[in-house]
Amino acid sequence: MSTAVDSAQLQPPVQLSGNGAAPPATAPFKPPPLAPIFEPTVEEFQDFYGYLESIAPVVVHTGICKIRPPKDWNPPFGLDVATFRFKPRVQRLNELEAESRVKLNFLDQLAKFWDLQGVRLRVPNVDRRHLDLHRLYNVVRQLGGYQEVTSSKLWSKVAGAMGHKQAGKSLASQLKFHYQKILLPFDLLKSGSQAAKTAAPPAPAVKTVERQASAPLSDAEAGRCQRNGRALRQAAAAADDARRMQLWSSPIKRPPSPQPATTPSSTSSTTTTATKSTARAKRSNSGVGGGWLNSLLCRECRRGDQESVLLICEGCEAPYHTFCLYPPLPDVPPGDWRCPRCVSETIASAPRPAEYGFEQSRTEYSLADFGAMADEFKRNYFAAQESFSNNASGGGSSQVPLDQVEAEFWRLLQSLSESVSVEYGADIHSSVCGSGFPTRGCAIPATLSGGKPTSKLAAEWRAHSEHPWNLNNLPLGDSGLLRFLRQDINGMVIPWCYVGMLFSAFCWHIEDHWSYSINYLHWGDPKTWYGVPSASAPALETAMREEAGELFERSPDLLHHITTIMNPAKLMAKGVPVYRIDQEAGDFVITFPRAYHAGFNQGFNFAEAVNFCSPSWLPMGRECVEKYIEVRRPCVFSHEELVCNMAAEIDELTADQAEFLLDEIKELQPRLADLTKTVASVGIEASQREKFECLPDDDRQCSVCNTTLYICGVQCTCQRRRLVCARHPDELLCDGKDCRRKPQCHRLVYRHTEEELLAMTQAVSNRCDQLADWRRQADSILAQGADKDLPDRSVLESLERQAVQLRVSQSCARLRRLRGALRMADRAAGVLRLLLRAPDPGAGASGRISESAFRALDAKLRELPCRLAEGVEFEQLRDRVESWRSRARQVLANPAASCDSVSGLLSEADSSLPVAMDDAAALSALGRYLDWKAEARAALGVHGRDGDEAEGKQDQRPSLADLQRLVDEAAANADADSAAADDVEFVDLSAKVTSLHHQASRLSMSIRECLEPDRQPQPDAAELARLVEAGRDLRVRLEPLQRLSDLLIAAADWECRADGLLTADLKDSDRRPSLEELEKLAADGRSLGLKLERLPQLEALIGQANAWLERASRNFLKKQSPHSLLQVLLPRSADSFLGGPSEQQPLQQHKKAVLSSSGSSKSASATAFEDPSVRFSAEQTDADRVAAYRDLASRELQAALVARRRNDAAGGCYCGRQLAGGACFLQCELCRLWLHAACAPLPKYLKPLGTSGPTLRAALRELKYLCPACERGRRPRMENLLSLLLVLQPLPVQLTAGAALQCLTERAMAWQSRVHSTLLAAPSCDRLWWLL
């Protein structure tokens, strides 16, 4: 079954004539003001009824409110969605609104009226819009009717009331014309005037009737008929089409059209149509001589002529001329026609339409199926609306603003041209389908737990199943009244579930018995609510009756059907206060007693609701029953039974329940007594106790007012189900006969005797008396003053226990005050126990209570309605505090107070008073003032340096920090105490201390500037000496002064060391300073940060030495050489030759040597060769260094010879391969190592030749090659060596590399001398090889 109808596919309710413009848009919806929203705390959320009473003074003025639970309250959804099934209701939106339904019913009746006369109704256009026939009909009736409006010329006023801005004569004439042609006959029919006017006497016998001569119509009559016919042809409506449309598909059933009558002589059941041909056919069938038809006369003009326009009614066969009718017909109708009398009788005899209600859908949904349908409907609906599509672009239909959905909802409700149907799953019994809340004793749904509930989920389920805000528990709470009913009432005690979709609505209504209601939205789109306070409920009912009086005439209890809604804007215009609220998922909405409420859903959601009754509801419930009796509405439960059940369980009642119950139960006993007297007065003697609660509800209802009996009633023994209540004892009937004078047929039935009711009343009264006595005691104690004799704390505890026994509500103000007093007494006792302990000396104010807090505590203790055991000690402490305060004020007022008196008071407060006294600060300030003066005198009383006396007083001089503190304290004392400014001694001491502080500060700043390491220009020793002298003369202890003195001593020591090194004897090379000594001395001088006389000379000398070393390095070291200059200048070690003394890993050593020669790793060189520079250092004398050099040279020669012999014998490359005949290879000139061309690092100019070939082989034969292990550095010319030695000679620095160079030069010169000698002596080849 379809749940909604697309507006694009709908047909209009009636056919529209002309090409007029569309009707004007509905006025924008103005939402009512918001209802209050509450957010209870976690503590308030634990007591539902207590919190309800706290917000009642606010909500009673709005009738509705929203409550947002604490954020951590999120109950799991307890419904098993896999098994949940329901059938929703079908709602047609424009049939819900009261005015729209009235209009639809009116148009339906109007279309039926014209249909019976064979005319199709068409709605005309006036002022470029469709004419509102219903409004026009009502406006004319309000102004006195057609005759009054016409005679008083009020049609312009009618046009203004219809909403036409320009109500001119032409518009007024159009409205008059359409009313006269369309509505006036209908109005005359409804008023009965037309039926009375056309009532004709019985037709005379056919045989005695003489046919009158026919006379032609006058010109005036013919013209009138012609004009009326043209007008009726222009007026518009297709009733048959309207009945077939969905807009008219309300439950109101229409009677079948009456069948046309047949002639008296016809035996056939075939019907005929009243046309001219029908009339002729009847004449022809009548036989010769005319028959019965010739004798028929028009019931108006009593003439039988003009047969062509003579109509015969299909109902009564009465003849009428078309021009004799009112209004006249321009032509014979083509269909069935009935005379005005038959039309009136048909409409009058038609059965009353059935009560309007919602149809039940034929489709059974699951939540998933219904949600898919609802989401698709919302998405499609707003996608078809251009204005909503623009607003919701990018967010889907769920993003349509709530206010726009609300405006669209009310527009649809008032639109007759659009019919939208939705479905609403309302009033689904949770006892059958399950509740959305966790329920005690029910298993966790598999859809929630996945088949294996965790312990956390189980604990959460258990906690929420027992929570007071769980709707399954809420009506049956301790303060709830419905727990005293002996029956489970769906919707009141057992919650109902609601599954909504877009635009599904609930109409204006109040809850049964005017009870409270609470609704919780588990999930889904919001739900919009409207509420009216209970005080305005009569005003809403009056406004609804004024708006839809016809509906209330049919159904006086229309508002109890929950099928009619009215726009809140109309209600507010009539003075009815309306409030709105949007309920979102996780929100509660509460409606108060007799608060009308309505609303609709913004989309797919799931909600749950239940009724409940608080103790304060009892008077309202009794008033509701009285109202039900007036309108004869049956009760859902017996109010009297509820009252008696409460009285029977007096011990289970809370205090509020007992108090409200007293007034209710007092109403019962007099009612039974009055009825007893009444039945006794009429002679009824029989009586019987009846357990009404065991009877079905239908068997215990009053036959007159339908109220449910419980206390008493009168029963007819002839018909046991015939009962009347105590209000209608005289209206009991039996078998349609008056039984009031037959006492033997009646008997009094009762549930409780008068004695039992009196006993119940007395029990409740006693309970209320106990409550009143408890209140008096509590008020007396809580109102105790400090001058009265206070009770012990145990009395308060006894009152609290009585409150628990009497079941006083937790929200009771007296009980809260009583418990608050007990808590305050306990806290005060705890504070006193801590306060009365001995204070911790030296703890200061942090470990003590302030004097203001102490006085506040004293005031609180005076307000306590009970005595404390620690009160006596506290009073003693209070006396000590007051005594100390008095003495402190005396000292502060004495200008000649001594330091001892001040310190004594402060010591007393610190050691014996656990209170941080306010005057302690002033005393401390006074003590500091006096101490300052003494300290200032001491600081200024120290004289300058005078021999031993000054040296002995160095430690007594104040520091710069002391002076700064004295200056700050002087300023603080002057600001805090105006008397200090008048103290001459204080002013003089302050000025002197300030002056001394300024001098010390300037000197300290100068000293610190001298000590700055990066100061430019650097200070000299003379400046330091001047500052040191000034600091010694000042009567202040400066910490930087000692550092400055130490720096001055260090500078003098450095100058001495520098003089010693720079004035050494240059002729003795052993006494020359080494470069390392000079660099260390220069670094020490620069670290002092002073301007030293010898430092530039020293740095110049170091620069010369470094310049010589740089020049020597350029001559001997290759680029990126891993060796130092000294290593290159000294002879090689024995391990540096491949084939030397070490035979363990020659190939690996040679490989490292190759890598070292290429500069790829310095660490490889360090591990490959023994460093000979270890034996050649600056600490040695020249003779020692020469001896060491000669020893190293001898070792180098021996190692070279050994390596040559071994490498000659090896005959292969170090890579392990033999030297093939065609390969390119070369041999080291020193160690005789053979190498492949590919294994040896070749010179750059040979690299383009590759690693083989005849060209490379020829080049290698001419190459004097040294392997990387033998060639560690460059081989400069002898002239360069001599030049370096010439530069080194005058340099007053001892350089180890210089000594090594000198030894190397001597060795080279000695070798040259031997070569010359050998060549002159014609040496042998062996000798020459040795020299090489």
TrEMBL record:
Residues 295-345 form the PHD-type domain. Residues 1-28, 199-231, 249-286, 1139-1166 are annotated as: Disordered. GO terms for cellular component: chromatin; nucleus. Its cofactor is Fe(2+). Residues 262-278, 1154-1166 have a biased composition (Low complexity). Its main location: nucleus. The keyword DNA damage does not apply. Gene3D superfamilies: ARID DNA-binding domain, Cupin, Zinc/RING finger domain, C3HC4 (zinc finger). Residues 35-76 form the JmjN domain. It catalyses: N(6),N(6),N(6)-trimethyl-L-lysyl(4)-[histone H3] + 3 2-oxoglutarate + 3 O2 = L-lysyl(4)-[histone H3] + 3 formaldehyde + 3 succinate + 3 CO2. GO terms for biological process: regulation of DNA-templated transcription. It is found in: Nucleus. Residues 100-191 form the ARID domain. Pfam families: ARID, JmjC, JmjN, KDM5_C-hel, PHD, PLU-1, zf-C5HC2. Residues 1-18 have a biased composition (Polar residues). Keywords: Chromatin regulator, Dioxygenase, Iron, Metal-binding, Nucleus, Oxidoreductase, Repeat, Zinc, Zinc-finger. Residues 463-629 form the JmjC domain. GO terms for molecular function: DNA binding; histone H3K4me/H3K4me2/H3K4me3 demethylase activity; zinc ion binding. Its EC number is 1.14.11.67. It is an enzyme of class 1 (oxidoreductase). Belongs to the JARID1 histone demethylase family. PANTHER family: LYSINE-SPECIFIC DEMETHYLASE, LYSINE-SPECIFIC DEMETHYLASE 5. This is [histone H3]-trimethyl-L-lysine(4) demethylase.
